[in-house]
Amino acid sequence: MIRDITIGQYYPVDSVIHRLDPRVKLLGTLIYIVSLFLFKSFTGYLVALLFLGTVIQLSRVPLKYILRGLKAVIVLLLFTIGFNIFLTPGEVLWQAWIFKITREGLRSGTFMGIRLIFLIVGSSLMTFTTTPNHLTDGLERLLSPFKKLHMPVHEISMMMSIALRFIPILLEETDKIMKAQSARGADFESGGLIKKAKSLVPLLVPLFVSAFRRANDLAMAMEARCYRGGEGRTKMKPLKYKGLDFMAYGAIAVYLAALFVITRYIPL
């Protein structure tokens, strides 16, 4: 299960999507996520699927690697879909005791499941193709207008970057601790829910200790290097838009236009 969590990990490969400016990927991901909630038709989701599939193909990230991250949230997906299917009022198709399935519930649950899958895959694709440093720089540049409101933009971007960096580190640490505890006779698989919860105690305690130790070491290293926030700091490689980035913005605009036209005139 630990190895199935791929969110926050960077997949190093040379591709068109990897070479894009991080601001383009951040804005593109945000626009794509918002667009998923603006329509409720199969044709709209088909357009979203074609756009997402094209981006995945251009990113050169293996589809199996991307879909592997869905295993970690499969319970959330099933719960959300079931919640919509059984609790949406409408034309009843099947009923047993207090549970009933309606035509509107099936449609709503299907749309919600597709929407969540596209949302997770699209968001994960951004972290697969962008390093934490580039994400930090892109987010800081996008939020730079809020500096006039005295918002600590650099500090917020730095915290998000550190959080993203810690995800693969903590996952690797968790895997090592699980293997060490299993070698000592710990069982994380068998038993009921309560037994499994109790078996996590020998795993969580050393994991938290390791996380606090790493956080303390990082804080001491930043202090030793006289880190004082973003005031007066310069960039070794400042972000600059290139022709490829403007082409990407154009592709996003075409996607939105196609989505608007198709969902307006083919409302299926």
What descriptors fit this protein?
268 residues, mainly alpha, 10 helices
- Estimated share of beta-strand residues: under 5%
Main sheet overview: 2 strands, antiparallel
Low-confidence runs = none
Number of structural domains: 2
Q: Could you tell me how far the N terminus lies from the C terminus, measured between alpha carbons in angstroms?
A: 38 Å
Helix content: 55-70%
Strand order of the largest sheet: 1-2
What's the mean pLDDT score? 83
H/I helix tally: 10
Whole-angstrom Rg: 22 Å
Task: Name the shape in a single word.
Answer: flat
Query: Could you give the count of β-strands?
Result: 2
Which structural class fits the helix and strand makeup? mainly alpha
Order of helices and strands: HHHHEEHHHHHH
